[in-house]
Give the backbone structure.
Amino acid sequence: MIDNLSRAKEELKRIGVDSYGLRLMALKALSFAVKLEKIRPQAANILKQEALSLGAEAAISREVIDLKRKRTDILLLGTEKQYRLLVEKLKRQPFGLAEIAEEMKNLLTDFKRKRWEIECAKYTLRLGGRTLIMGILNVTPDSFADGGRYNRIDSALQKAERMAEEGADIIDVGGESTRPGARLVPLKEETRRTIPVIKELVRKINLPISIDTYKSRVAREALDSGASLVNDTSALRMDKKMVGVVSRYKAPLVLMHMQGRPRNMQKNPRYGDVVGEIISFLRKRIAFAKEEGIDEEGIIIDPGIGFGKKTEHSLEIFNRLSEFKSLGRPILVGPSRKSVIGNVLNLPVEERLEGTAATVAASILNGADIIRVHDVKEMKRVVNMTDAILREQ
């Protein structure tokens, strides 16, 4: 079974297909599904007929045919070539189908994108050629995996230097625990924990430094001190001034999904379609960031494993991670030592290395571009092996 375009092209070349035939047939080799939400019945009926005329399929509610429903979701099934032809046909149709055609065209482009270059102060993050590793440096007394181990400048610096030697591409500094049930840390205390460490890291480590915070003041002081990337677990929701700081400093930004807040996020989180709802959330946050002056090319998305998710939610995210490619942005995944691993394997935090390795490999195989981990040396080996299997050489 051929499951990607590169493989399809390779097989066509082996058969001896000429260059024209290769271009013509490669797009017919792969089929995929596209879900459209809340479409008017008139548009849905036209769309279905146009899809059928091209040999594709469109699944709609049975109540749409006689217009009993005001809106319906549609599941389109077809090849890339069929989608491109469908886009051209829909451009000439009424009932908002021209706008849908434009969205589908952008979706096809975004889904196929594989490489990005993100300017990160004096560094450039080159994504897509290989998986990057973000090393976790918690300068907190209460983080779930390593609380209290690196909350002095000397121990934090030693940990960061070790991660750099082991193959980290980014060091992510956090001064407030976001473990389930964690209490908010005052601004002054978070600043005291993070800023001196960042200043030392910038002097002694030749890697981009990320600040893991949702507070605009902490982000601003971190960027002033030499940090070059903001990792906001609230996706710009918990501090209205954060968007202005990121825009003003032209800093790359990680937007993460979290249902609720750390203190209550694990109190029975619920979803109808966990992946669909997270994609919708992130699409809206990307749009908001762009409207507020943040360059979309600097945005990285994170589905937020374990942040307002039950075990089954996190497992489904790993399994369906490739669907996040529809947003057209690099994907960061933070599976390291998370409760989903502990719950599946019935293991404490300190024994979750193998489980973390499995989730890292699964994430990369399903589209992750950056992996955020505690154990850089071990996960670097996992990353290299998985990249060797997956990435184009």
